[in-house]
Amino acid sequence: MVNFSKKEIRIHLICWLVYIFVEVVLAGFIAEKFHSFFFYALFYVINIGIFYFHSLWVMPLLYKKSKNRLLYFLLGLLFAYALYLAGVTIVNLLLEYFRLKPSPLDFSLKYISITLFRATFFTMYGTGYFYLNRYLERKDGEMKRVLEIEGLKYQLVVAEKDFLRAQINPHLLFNTLAFIRNASKNNLPNASLAIGGLTGLMEYALEDSKSDFVLLTREIEQMENLIKLNRLRFEHLLHLNYSRDVRNEGAVILPIILLTLVENIFKHGILNNPDHPANIEIFSDETQISFSTSNLAQTNGKTTGRKNGMNNISARLKHAYTGRHHFVYGMIGSKFETQLKIYFV
After folding, report:
1. In this predicted structure, what is the pLDDT of residue 85?
2. Measured distance CA(314)–CA(146) in Å, rounded
3. What is the Cα–Cα distance from 205 to 103, expressed in whole angstroms?
């Protein structure tokens, strides 16, 4: 059972009215005569009937999951032709009875041939309508699948971003709170600075990073906030070189990306060796954002967390900057290095 929407019903009515008007006018001018309204109304009811009967009931028989579907289709087609012939004959008899038909019915081979030809004409239209419907339904299904896939991709990116935010918070929160606890006993100014820095980071990680993109300067601000927190924690034992050159204040970036890469330095790096300090460089102009890090890497073999974080960053970058970014990371000698470039043009 096919259910047509109100819009589809209106479209079908308009199409049939236009078709009937054109055919009646052309046939009338060619034959140089027109029939009564009831003549046209009765015959077009039958014509339209076989159109829908064939397209909605007979044609689907070809696609039934049955070995005998071709036989069912042929029987359905014969049944449609028989109904059409019977319907046209009954209409002719009724018109003749009510004297609305100028000539009597001549049930001859010629009459049957003309009637079946007319039936074929409308079944061909019905066949075209059936395949057009199948094509549109297939395209609609493909579009829905594409939208579903895009929706799932979007949900995946959101989940990855939330995962990255959660990944930063516990580690940073634990270490910073431990530092604040110790500093509150011996160095209240440092404890106060650490609380302010942690508050800013948590606010950014929990609220600002919900946006799809943030200002690069905002991400850098929190990245520097993270560096300051660790400088407070490690004081003179932290050996880290930081370089910043931002020439495009309006540049935007995915949130948490740079923050995660810097956080990984403090999670997995060796930062107390003055001969091998960690390095963080950020550069931006109208054409690109360039970011790189390097640090001595711990050799305890615990690289799973770092690898998961890098894979998640790669997935987010690929989704947001397809064909417009370059991101590589890995061990080079005893150092772990990352390089990220995001191109605007």
Report:
1. 94
2. 23
3. 88
Instruction: Provide the 8-state DSSP code for 207.
Output: T
Report how far residue 327's alpha carbon sits from residue 330's, in angstroms, rounded to the nearest whole number: 11
pLDDT value, residue 148: 85
Per-residue model confidence as pLDDT tens digits over 276-296: 999 999 999 999 999 999 999
> Residue range 120-124: average pLDDT?
95
Q: Where are the alpha helices (DSSP H) in the chain?
A: 6-31, 37-53, 69-97, 109-186, 188-206, 216-234, 257-268, 304-320
With both helix axes pointing from N to C terminus, report the angle between 37-53 and 69-97 in degrees, rounded to the nearest 10: 170
Please state whether 296 falls in left (phi above 0), alpha (psi between -120 and 50) or beta.
Answer: beta
pTM of the model: 0.53
Q: Given the DSSP bridges, would you call strands 278-284 and 240-246 parallel, antiparallel or unpaired?
A: parallel
Name which of 291, 258, 296 is nearest 168 in CA terms. 258
Nearest to 212 by CA among 160, 264, 281, 149: 160
**What are the structural domain ranges in the chain?**
6-141, 147-343
C-alpha separations of 4 from 10, 201, 298 in Å: 10, 56, 67
Superfamily (CATH H level) for 147-343: Histidine kinase-like ATPase, C-terminal domain (3.30.565.10)
Q: CA-to-CA distance for 54 and 124, rounded, in angstroms? A: 9
HSE, side-chain direction, 13 A CA sphere, residue 128? 6
pLDDT band at 332 (very low <50, low <70, confident <90, very high): very high
Angle, CA 201 vertex, CA 313 and CA 326 arms, to 5°: 25
Ordered DSSP codes for 296-338: EEP-SS--HHHHHHHHHHHHHHHHHSTTSEEEEEEEETTEEEE
DSSP helix/strand/coil, 66: coil
